[in-house]
Amino acid sequence: MTSMTVSHLSKTFKLNRKERLRAVDDVSFELRSGETTALVGESGSGKSTIARMLARLVTPTSGEILLETSNYRKDVQMVFQDPFASLNPAHTIGYHLRRPLEIHKTPGTAEELLERVNLPAAFAGRYPHELSGGQRQRVAIARALAPRPKVLLADEPVSMLDVSIRLEILNLIDRLKSEEDLAVLYVTHDLATARHFARDIMVMYRGQIVERGPADDVILTPGHPYTRLLAEAAPDPWAAHEGERPPRQERRNGPPLAGGCLFRNRCPYATDACAGDIPVYGEKHLVRCVLRASDRTAMERDGTPS
Ligand SMILES: Nc1ncnc2c1ncn2[C@@H]1O[C@H](COP(=O)(O)OP(=O)(O)OP(=O)(O)O)[C@@H](O)[C@H]1O
Questions:
Q1: Cβ atoms within 10 Å, residue 290
Q2: Are the beta carbons of 223 and 292 closer than 8 angstroms?
């Protein structure tokens, strides 16, 4: 069942008197209960801005976010990247968990919430500094679950944690998704965990969703040259291409491209057509590109025209 429908969502930031940055550009998708949808793309592509608009922390410039239910503040919860910044050092874990129960008038106790995330009930009396990063992230997840939300937004929930415990936390979110029938948006740089935990993957490039579809299809048979670049070089898309890594500023704002495909100045298959309107092809697996994957295979076989 659809929990949240996002239509034509855009966000333009005003950088200074003259400059504007279109961080999110006409994005539409659905989040369904009991399913994880991954949002992947390099740094600065707009992933967090989408999550923050869905959490109502950032006001959209245009577009619509429709929720099946009516109590938005209760039904949409977010887990942030930094488990050290998200808990107040002055308050106990119990306080952090009881607050949302009180605010949203949901039944339950801090101890029950701790159990749901596999932490001992005695942690309710502890302070954040007494916990490890992984334990804090479990607390942050428990706090997000306290109001019994329908939608959980997880923005890079494990990227600041020790590699050895990342899977535990992702498995926990996955189990809770099934138990609570949550619609999960998993924002990540990491294609491998996106493929493993998500049913669908959406690939963002400079504010636009350039490809989306069932996780295996997107990763194993990427349709967009950008997805292919990400998939070949995962987890860091530039790790294997260090010499070609574009400077951060260029990646973020880039040279101005009026319309057309925003990837065309980096794309090995770019043609004049890429400056025009870009069609979307596919049904379940959608790709925003003038060339189909089969055309590119033929170009590679027969030699790319110079
Ligand atoms: N409040 C803001 N004011 C101005 N620009 C912003 C603001 N928030 C984000 N941006 C810009 O919007 C673009 C998208 O940022 P966003 O954080 O959504 O990307 P991201 O894909 O989540 O990146 P990361 O993985 O590094 O978090 C970036 O160029 C960023 O600098």
A1: 21
A2: yes
51 alpha carbon – ligand 1 mean position (Å): 11
Which residues form ligand 1's pocket by a CB distance below 6 Å? 13, 15, 21, 23, 41, 43-49, 252
Q: What is the Å distance from ligand 1's center to 230 Cα?
A: 19
Can you tell me which atom of ligand 1 is nearest the CA of 252? Answer: 29
User: 82: CA distance to ligand 1 center in Å?
Assistant: 16
How far does residue 122's CA lie from ligand 1's centre (Å)?
Answer: 38
147-191 confidence digits (pLDDT tens): 999 999 999 999 999 999 999 999 999 999 999 999 999 999 999
Q: How many helices (H) and strands (E) does the chain have?
A: 11, 11
pLDDT class of 302 with cuts at 50, 70, 90 = confident
Question: What was the ipTM of the complex prediction?
Answer: 0.96
Instruction: Give 2-201's CATH code, choosing from 3.40.50.20, 3.40.50.300, 3.40.50.150, 3.30.2350.10.
Output: 3.40.50.300
Q: Which residue's alpha carbon is nearest to atom 1 within ligand 1?
A: 13
221-239 confidence digits (pLDDT tens): 999 999 999 988 755 544 5
User: What are the domain boundaries of the chain?
Assistant: 2-201, 213-302
CA distances from 244 to 3, 72, 203, 241, 267 (A): 41, 43, 21, 5, 12
